[in-house]
Amino acid sequence: MIKRRLRTTPVPGTSDSYTGINFNLGYHIRGYELDLTYRVAPNLLMGTATLRMDNYHALDSLTLDLANSLRVEKVSAIGTAGTRVEVARFRHSDRKLRITFRNQIPVDQEFSLVIRYRGNPRPVRSQWGMIGWEELSNGSLVASQPCGAPSWLPCDDTPDEKALFDVKIAVDNGYSAIATGELIGRSVSGSMTTWHYRTREGMATYLAAIHVGDYEEVSLGKAASGVPVLAYIPRGSSALKARILHDFSKQVAMVDAYEELFGPYPFSSYRVVITEDDLEIPLEAHGLSTFGANHATGKDTWERLIAHELSHQWFGNSLGLAQWNDIWLNEGFACYAEWLWLEKAGVKSAAASALSFYEELAKLPQDLLLADPGAKDMFDDRVYKRGALTVHALRVLLGDAAFFSAIQSYVAEGRHGLVEPRDLKRHLYMVSTDHAALDALWNSWLRELPLPEFPTA
Ligand SMILES: [Zn+2]
């Protein structure tokens, strides 16, 4: 069962004010079943997507998001007993696949769309650069935040529509396909191997990923709770492998630390993929994170980012965003989790990290509203730092015992669902003895521009 938000459905004709994507209205997708084949050398993706859906409006037609680099060959529909659903025609342009039905589908039916497509996937252009399916020197990756999923599958690309995923992908023997979800099985047929993954929990489309490459699976150990932690390391360079094993050697201890602070790890395993290519930034996916070779220096240079990406499994992946303007709920917490890790590891107190970043932040223009930074500044470092400082200010105000108990109940309640700032605030209220002070803090950090005073006990 997938928990859904109870917010009102977006107004028809409107678009996501951050990604610019026009909302696809009238239905929910409950499950994506992807049956894919990927040839590395020609960067060719072929497949069939079966979308299990139901509709909350009567539908004559509907739209899905799909990049123009993929060509739709066939669309058909499967109704259920009593409901005939037939596709009259489809049109694919401008990153939208519009499907028109022969007869109107009455409200509240269950049906599936079967979409056969192929093409040379490439990242989609966005105001944050090129995102989505990307060819590497020997393989490919997917990094979709916030709106790159249509670069490889037809979908409803909005963070609040979590769905189950069942993905089969055939790749040339010798390559691994590492996808989000649990590995169900692997079978060889001729020169191709099919890898089968399934999610147990609903996943936002931007967190769905597939990595294809010549990877070696290496166990990094098990968390105290039993969660296995695995690394996927490019085969062939023992120097790179040594750097990775060194820099990721604390990954298991990080899982232990965060389980203690935030509550149980939300997925059945944690996997890190390190690509042979350098990457600009690491990125989180569902139960998985992606780093470039440049992020493993052998000198712990990016320890804070290794911690940061892990913490997104709680903040962002399990607790999903209902809308992008709440991005600080992901990035503020992930950045604060970096400081918490350094504190746990005995390197530096979170208060000391907070102070040094506060001093840096104070030098920058204070023209960004944390509660709604706008698309342009969505991934601005000030969102991360002011977000983390907000979390720190809450901790200072409430004291450790109350603060961490509120965070744990917030995390437990939102598990595999969607959260909004008011959900967090509700949990903070429950442990707070001074609601007026909490309101004042909340407003000054989130809803006003000037940088508040540095929080001290
Ligand atoms: Zn992040």
TrEMBL record:
Pfam families, alphabetized: Peptidase_M1, Peptidase_M1_N
GO cellular component, one term: cytoplasm
InterPro entries: Aminopeptidase_N-like_N (IPR045357), Aminopeptidase_N-like_N_sf (IPR042097), Peptidase_M1 (IPR001930), Peptidase_M1_aminopeptidases (IPR050344), Peptidase_M1_dom (IPR014782), Peptidase_M4/M1_CTD_sf (IPR027268)
All residue ranges annotated as the Aminopeptidase N-like N-terminal domain in the record: 32-207
Keyword Zinc part of the UniProt annotation: yes
EC code: 3.4.11.2
Enzyme class: hydrolase
Domain Peptidase M1 membrane alanine aminopeptidase positions: 250-445
Signal peptide (residue range): none
Keywords: Aminopeptidase, Hydrolase, Metal-binding, Metalloprotease, Protease, Zinc
The reaction(s) this protein catalyses: Release of an N-terminal amino acid, Xaa-|-Yaa- from a peptide, amide or arylamide. Xaa is preferably Ala, but may be most amino acids including Pro (slow action). When a terminal hydrophobic residue is followed by a prolyl residue, the two may be released as an intact Xaa-Pro dipeptide
Protein name from the UniProt record: Aminopeptidase N
Organism: Corynebacterium callunae DSM 20147
